[in-house]
Description:
The structure holds 2 protein chains of 2 kinds.
Chain A (H helix, E strand, L loop, with lengths): L3 E9 L5 H11 L3 E10 L10 E3 L2 H15 L6 E4 L5 H17 L4 E4 L4 E2 L2 E2 L5 H11 L4 E2 L3 H8 L6 H14 L5 E7 L8 E8 L4 E8 L4 E2 L2 H15 L7 H26 L7 E2 L8 H4 L10 E2 L1
Parallel strand pairs in A: 1-2, 1-4, 4-5, 5-8, 8-9, 12-13
Antiparallel strand pairs in A: 2-3, 6-7, 9-10, 10-11, 11-14
Helix pairs in contact in A: 1-7, 2-3, 3-4, 5-6, 7-8
Chain B lengths: L2 E9 L5 H11 L3 E10 L12 E3 L2 H12 L6 E4 L5 H17 L4 E4 L4 E2 L2 E2 L5 H10 L5 E2 L3 H8 L6 H12 L4 E4 L4 H4 L4 E8 L5 E6 L8 H18 L9 H18 L11 H6 L8 H5 L8 E4 L1
Parallel strand pairs in B: 1-2, 1-4, 4-5, 5-8, 8-9
Antiparallel strand pairs in B: 2-3, 6-7, 9-10, 10-11, 11-12
Helix pairs in contact in B: 1-8, 2-3, 3-4, 5-6, 8-9
Amino acid sequence: MTRKVLSIQSHVVHGYVGNKAATFPLQYRGWDVDALNTVQFSNHPGYGQFHGFRSKAEDLKSIVKNGLVEGLGLQYDALLTGYLPDPEALRQMGSLLSEMCESNPNIKWILDPVLGDNGKLYVSQESIPAYKEILKRGAVFLATPNQFEIETLTGVQISDLNTLKTAVCRFHELYPKIEYVVVTSVDPEPSISDFMLCVCSDRSSKSAQYFKIPKIDVQFSGSGDLFSALLLDTFLSQSAETRDLARAVNEVVSLVDTILLKTLQIHTVQNAQDKSKRINDLKIIECRDLLGVKVDVKYSAFEL
Amino acid sequence: MPRVLATQSHVVHGYVGNKAATFPLQCKGWDVDCLNSVQFSNHTGYGMDKVFGTCTSANELDLVFKGLQDLNDYDALLSGYLPNREAVACMAKNYQELKKKRPQSVWLLDPVMGDDGKLYVNEDVIPEYVSLLESSLIDVITPNQFELEILYGNKVRTVQELKKALQKLHEAVPIIVVTSCSFELFKDPKHLYCVSSVRGQPATFYRVPVIDSYFTGVGDLFSALLLDSTYISHAAEKTPGALDINQVLSIVQKVLAITLEHSPNDVKAAMGSPLTMKEMELRIIESRDCYTSPCSTNDFIYTKL
């Protein structure tokens, strides 16, 4: 049976962020992806300008509730949620998806609490309590905040490994029903470190591991969305008895790193004059063969 | 990587419109920029009371096009189902600008209006498509016979009349593929007939065995694969007559066979029956390897005109 995921994120016509970054890799790995688009933009805002519109909260809700669940009786193996800019839509989808998971515990919800990055909020302030409420309710299986998002959700500022550990512990205290958390793009001392950290923690083991990933001196868009999609596939493809989050995270950060390096390489060949240190679009299609082969892990896990 | 702009419907669940076109093209190495003309929970064959979601308004479409006009030169343009006159006019205006900016791009238009004598768009859509064809900017159209008759302005009851219709439409469009002919043309219940016609050359009839079920999205898959095939033959500067329709039909037949393999034996999809429809969604994902591996190509050629 083909596994089914409902993925609720943004849609850009051009480029690869949100559902455009998540859908193809998941499909290539054999998932039936029901993609519900929270916005339709020409391209992502990182370009400096873009045009488009948001889906209305009531449309998103009726598509899922009246259409997919009640109308077609679809049973999903997984839910994936990302950028959902309208706080009202976030609250409504939050309670609807929570109900779906509560009535069928086989559904695994991977939630990327998209709030912002690098110290900046890029959704409305009202989204913060909405995410907190979703996480408190506890239907989410795995959350993938970045550094700014876990700081916002826990109130703990991360400035070194100790405070990072405090933030992860605090996350488990505040949201005790969430089984797994992976913190991405952790960079407590940006000016002096050559590494980004990625941390994973499982509430039952009382321990957390982290990986040190060499920084690439270029800014990419969509890598977080690609990460959460690949993690969904990799983690849920493990057998439930021998689930190993650190192993899954290592495979995924290794693959994402390879895709970023290949994107950089292609970009450099095509745009020799570009010195901007920012690459707007991941080369997802050029990297498609990498999605179908076994991933060699690149990193070692350290205890946090 | 070649880049295509595809403007057609989006369904959250299932495979029609952009959902049927995008993954196969991506597997073939295309960057697919999908502009969604609607966002529905599922296709309308499930029954209208089972469809939730909204049409993208012409204003919203135009807004997104505005962002795209500054970004790209497209290698190909594809359009399919657009829900109303305003949306067709908006696509027409923007695609003409894009095509003029880059005349070598391949423009495939599927004039989605109806099937089997039934219109499923408003009548005021017809003149929009007719006047768009007259622009002579379109490279390929893929009407079914009903849509061909609408564009031609007359019924087509015989192969001779079909020939006349093709001749007339070739005044504006170099490549015409009629994706399904009416029963009365060949009176052969065992096969579906399609015609490929390149301006200045004899048209070729193809036929494939009929599968007794109701599939949706087949036309959208067909036009996406045909676009790829046309692009490749243009890029290789082959004569346009070298279109590999057999290969396109072979892939489509393979996808249908895989779809049947995955469906329960006793299910035959019927319009308005959600549970049987669900079983007959094209298995676009399971067919991944068909799009790229040179699958054995059958010869579906029936006759030349």
